[in-house]
Structures are given as C-alpha cells and as structure tokens.
Amino acid sequence: MRKLLRRPVFLIGLVITLALFAIALLSLVWTPFLPTKMNIVHKLKAPLDFGLLGTDQFGRDVASMLMVGAWNSLSTSILAVLLGASVGTAIGVVVAMRRGWLELVVMRGCDIVFAVPPILSAMMLGAFIGSGRFTAIIAIGVFMVPVFARLALGAALQIWTRDYVTAAVSMGRPKAKITLVHVLPNISNQIIVQVTIQLGLAILTEAGLSFLGLGMPPPTPTWGRMLADAQTFLGQAPWLALMPGLAIALAVLGLNMLGDGLRDLLDPRDNS
Amino acid sequence: MTFLGSATILKSAAFGLAMSAGLLLDQTGAEAAAKTAITVGMAIEPAGLDPTVAAPVAIGQVTWQNIFEGLTTIDKDGKIKPQLAESWQISPDGLTYTFKLRQGVKFHNGVAFDSSVAKFSIDRARGADSVNPQKRYFASIDTVETPDAATLVLKLKQPAGSLLYWLGWPSSTIVEPKSAADNKTTPIGTGPFKFVSWSKGSKVDLARNADYWNKAVSLKLDTAAFRFISDPQAQAAALKAGDVDAFPEFGAPELIKSFEGDKRLTTVIGNTELKVVAGMNNTRKPFSDKKVRQALMMAVDRATVVEGAWSGFGTPIGSHYTPNDRGYQDLTGVYPYDTAKAKALLAEAGFPNGFTFTIKAPQMAYAQRTSQVLQAMFAEIGVTMNIETTEFPAKWVADVLKAADYDMTIVAHAEPMDIDIYSRDPYYFNYKNPAFNEVLKKVEMTSDAAGQEKLYGEAQTILANDVPALFLFVMPKLGVWDGKVKGLWENEPIPSNVLTDVHWVE
B159 partner at 20 to 30 Å CA-CA among A18, A124, B65, B91? Predict the structure, then answer.
C-alpha cells in the first residue's frame, strides 16, 4: 500500500478511471433527465441555468447526454480493445512459437494494417454494412491487432530465451503447452498495461468516428457527435463543446496515467 | 502582383482593368470612388457551369442572368419580363407563341444572336438526347419555326399556361451552337458578365462584358468572383475578415446573431422557394395508408421544428407551396399538431403500438437537425424512426430520387412553383392521384392568372389532405453582406445571384 501511495500518477489515473466507470454504469439505471428528451423551449441554456451542465440546441440535458455518452464510449472502446488484444496476443505468441517465414508474413501484414488508419477502415466498413456501434468496434479493434501482435511477439521471444523455458524444451514438452504455461502468464503484465493505454486511444478514435458521423446514429448520445454538433454554436453556447471535450480529455488522460502507473508498478526490474 | 498593398484589392485584381484601377485607388487613397469588384460567397460549388444540362441550383446561381440569358426572364419580384425576346404574341387558342427577338445581341465569342440560335437552344433542350433538367417544360412544344432572323414561332401541341415563366428559368437559357458543347467548363452567353476562369475547389471569376446589348442598365462592377466555402464557420470568418463581400445564402442560422455587433455587415432575411419536406414512399407499407401519413403529420409541431432545426428562421407550410407563390393558401391547419389525435389515427390504421422505420437524411445541417427533431416527435406517438445519413447528392440521388428505395427522406426542394412534382410518374414519392394530376393539367389549359391561382389552390388542398410528404417549413434566405454593397436580391423567387444591379456605395 505504501508503495502505491508513492505513485501519485497511478492513483490519479485510477481515481479518474474508476469515476468514469462509475458514471458510465450509473447512466444505465439513472440520469437526471432522459438524454433523448427534447425540450426546445429550454434550448441552449447555460450550465446551472437548466440542469447541471446546461442544454443543447434541442433543449436536451447535457449532463445526462454526457453520462450516457460515457457508457457508449467506454463499452465500444473496451470491446474494441478486447477484440484487438485477444486476436493480437494470440497471433503474437503463435508467431513467437513458430518463427520462420510466418514471422515475416505476419509482421508485414501488421505493417499493412498499420498503414490504414481506423477512420479510413471505418469509412470502408461503413459503406458496406452501414455505420454504427458494430462498425466502430470492428474498425478500432482491427487497428489494435498489430499493436498487440508486435508487443506479444517481442515479449514472448524474450521469454523463449529464458533458462526455464530452454529447460522445458529440452525436457520435450510440446511448444503449445510451453506457450500456455510459461509464455502467456509471463507476458500478461505487459499486455495489461498496453490494454489500459490502448483504451485511451480507442476512446479518442471512437470520438473521432462519431465526430465524423461514422459512430452510433442519433439519438444515441456520443461524445464525438456532441462535439461535432456544438461546432456552430461555439459563439453562443461554448459549454456545448467544452463539456464533451473535457470528458474526452479527462478519460484519455486518466487511462494513460493509469497505464503509466501500472507499467511502473508491474515492472519486475523495479525493486525500490 | 504582390506589390499591391491591400489584400482585398489583390484578390480582386485578377484582370488588367481592375488591377490598374485598384492600384491607382490604393496609392492615391481616393476614397470617394466606389469599388468595382465583388466577391460573392456560395456554400456549394457546382460540378459544371451549364444550367441547361444539369439540375443543381448552384449552376444557375453562378451563371443565370450573369453569363446566360433567356428569351424571357424572372425579375426580383418573381414577375416574367422580356429579355432576348423583345415582345410576344399568343394566339387566342393559346397554341401559337410568336416572339419578336432583340436585334444586335452578341454572344461573348462574337456570334450574333438570331432566331436560328434561339431555335437551336430550344431544340437542344427538347431533343431526344437532351439531358435538360426541366425537359418536360418543353414537352408541349410541337414545332419551332423561324420565318425570319428576328422572329421565332413556337407551335404547341396543347396550351401551356406557364410556358413564358418556364422560358425564364436557368435551364431555358439561350446558348449558341459552336460553344454549347463546352459550356460546362467555359460558358459563353449573352449576359452582362463574361466567364474568365474557374479555379476548381475555390472560385469562378467573371468580368464585365463591355459589349453588353442592354444599354438601359449601367453596370458598375468590372469584375465579380464566386467563392465556394462549404463550412458555415469558415463562411462567417470569411465575411468578418472581408475575404467575401456577400454571402447571399448564409449556411448557419445560429451564427446570424454573431454578426449583430459588426457595423460593417448587414443581415437581410428574405424569402426563398426552399421547401423542406419529408417525403414518404407512398407505395411502401405502412406509408401507403393515408391515415398513417396523416397521423405522422399531426405528430409534428412545425413551429418547434423551425425553432430546433433552423433557430426559428422559417415559415411553416401546410402544402408544397410557399407564401410568395401566387395563389398560396395557408393549410398548416389541415393537420395541426395534436399527439392525441395522431395516436388515435395511428391505432385506427392498425398501429396502436406504433412502428419502426428509417429516414434517409442527407448530411446537410437542416436535414440532420430536422430529422432529429422529428425523431423525438414521432417517439411521442410511439413511432420509432432510425436516422440513416445518406450522402447528398450522389448517394441520395441514386438511392432515393432514382431508385425510390427508402421509407422516408428529407430534402429542401429549391425550384419555384414545383407542386407538379407530385404528378410526375415516376418520382420518388410514388404518389399517384389522378384527381391531383387532373387539376395540374387544367392549370396548363388555363391562360388567365386568376383561374390558374384558383386551380393551384385546389392542388395545394389535395396535397395537404393526402400528405404524400410531411410539409414542414420554408427556409428563409439569410443574406449577410457588406453594408456598402447594394443591388443584391433580398428575396429569392428563383435560386440565383443576379449581379446586374450590384454596386458599391461610399
């Protein structure tokens, strides 16, 4: 515990992230107002003038929209990162086990996926299956795969050179079993750290997709679309852009701090 | 040319005349002389510059009355005026139109205008392989005769009471045989301005036609440029910075307030013909049931739609007709906002628990916002509407306008007096009502204005009762321009940016 307290970055990150999850979960059962309820008489009201954070151009409660937006943003991002992490890690450890031409092919494949930004792949996907949550998850997830594949491969290759692994190999244990028993548990720390950091990136990407109209369709509130809708109202209702902007910034900051803190915490070389 | 001091002058100094004039002005500081160049902003860049081969109104907004002219024209009050035809006579049976053509008119390339050119233009527009966007307007013409160079005779198959009005449209402008094929990129007309250059993605430059035939008008502008800026924020910034002198159709009503403190700029709110209607697929269930359409109409509070979608700028309509069209009737009371009645009617139609459908909404702000307001209103009567953003124009034209593959859509119809679209077959509404078609046929058979207006009233009433589309509101023309610019049209009886009378005052 004392070790934890000496790491303010980790703690701040943890608090922000937990608060974010709490708000997202709360929105499933309670919001101050119905986030889709329009009340045009009360449009563009300033924060505290109507509701906690004011209203948008349709008179919808910004605070309620932000809460539901947190859930939409988080759930999409988590699913996308889980997809990317599981597929990517699986590819990484299998390649580390087999090496040879497979390594070459898979790594060049990763380069190709890296070259296509998630916004672009979401647009292509959207053209075929229509935009929405599913498209966003797939587009972001696919982009995450090479990140985890490379990380897992690098980490796994290190493990394969360890003495206990060499011992296991010389004892004739099958490679698949070694991967499951020795390699995966030993690289899991690095994967978890990466998941946290990628989550921040996924939230940012999801907001970008929604901003461009490639995310979930209205009336589902999303941070990205709130930001996009607020553009022309910047002069008369700056809070409309400020609130979702702050929410996105805080969420990404929190997750990055948590990721950084976790990395320090889980680093086996750090004995201080 | 960078030696020119002033940025505004630099921008307009694309041509010799303006440049030398501007240079003198700038150096001597002669403030008394008015400027002779203008930059007009537009939200949409046209894909071509020939209004006789493609429909987008942006084409006419650059070229009509500036580069191209017609036999007749439409003035700023929406009245028909003679132009390249000095006068005309209509036979008592309404089947023969004899035009006396203006003499001494020359195209920008030196070709003289006469009856053979007029015949060429009309035959090109009505010919078998014509792609004229309003080809049906020429359908009543049987033969085009040219007894002499100054006379054009149109013989009709059946009377066409609106023919003179249609001949004033951008799509009916007169083009010359040699240059017609290239008008898309280098338009050649008879108008007061010549085409100079088109920087794709940026602007179209025009310069004064020194040989303009109409000596009655005194052109004050030497040069004019149309600049294309699609983003409303950028439009506002360009206006405030003086990069654009006028934005006759400013894109964002919510930004209008931001000009209030600016003493240099004036805001002019005028009429347009832009009818925002949510069309329904009248042959697709459940919209094939009139009661369902009527129930949806009653679920809509038009005033709130205007407030939510367009910051309160706009006039509710009850039919496909605007208050500035002749014979207008206010029919917003036929199916007024009443959720209880709407629910009852929906139950009567067999949907007590509502239903679910999809609106294909273009990406434009007015369409997106109106869709969201409608979505919330329909939810009140238990109807779930999903919004599917459909890129305009390409995808929307393919899916909705051509294929009619949609439940509901929303778009602003820009053409004036286009109530006849509901009688077209095929047209994307799939609305088929012989009684309505009969009324519109009678309009063309009627030559006196009062009789036509009465018939237009009947047509409006039929639509208001049948609700083939949800009639929502007319968008206003939100004009923002430098207070010293005079002569721009305040209203828009037809989509246009007529520069003939535009001038600067000091």
Answer: B65
